[in-house]
Amino acid sequence: MSCEAPRLSRTRICANDFGSALSALSHIRSHDSIFHLAGQVAGLHLKPAKCVLVVTGVPLTDSLKEAIREWFRNNVPRFAEFTIADCGKYLGVWLGRNLVKNTLQGPLEKYNNRVTELLDAHPPGPVAIFRYSEYVASVFSYVAQFLYPDFPKEFQALEHRSILRLLRMSGNDLPRCLTLTLKEFLGVEPRPILHSFLGVLSRYAMSEQDYFISLAKEISSFLSDANTVLDRCRVCPTGGLDSTPILQRLFDAMSGQGVHANTATIWGRLHPSTSFLG
In angstroms, rounded to a whole number, what is the distance separating the alpha carbons of residues 91 and 215? Predict the structure, then answer.
């Protein structure tokens, strides 16, 4: 209760990973006392190299970063060596600014590496496409639970190039619109990456919808009169982020909004539109 009292912070813990959203920098004093006690009693210590203070409310400039570090030295010296950034990785997903681009960077590298590995094996066309869907396109399955690419055309171009490479074809041999309709020729067709993103995100949102609705209500109660009218029009406030918050993406998936608008008719038949505001 020393750090979770109303309007101070909200903390979530998974194994040895801690994530806490602070309503003000000064509230980190409470966290410092808790971790100091844990170090004395249980021998559990924070590693500064793995600790990040993520600033989202305002643009993070060099002068602001230095001001925050100076505040740490004067008030919480044990945290003075923490990294100060506008984004940080938590449980495999980057939070803060540029969260989509940063989160997808790792899976994209793995995707390209697996395409190269598959090419080096020289499989026949049908086998290459089958392995592509099973082994290559699946690298996005985890992060797809939380986000959708902000640059879909780049993903489509990447997918097109990769499939043509696996079929030993040049860029002009097959139009992009036909890349995902190879079943008539090969007996198998590649898994569409963007469709997988939508499907995985929708399934995850619907499977945990009760929890997400309760979480959204907690956010609304936590902010009370502090959030603006604009923020109240959505499920959760942006908090200075430059992209749609993860929870908002999940609610869009539930109600067929945002990138899920094209599937709204289908989802509307299966699941009524969900909103804790209405």
Answer: 18
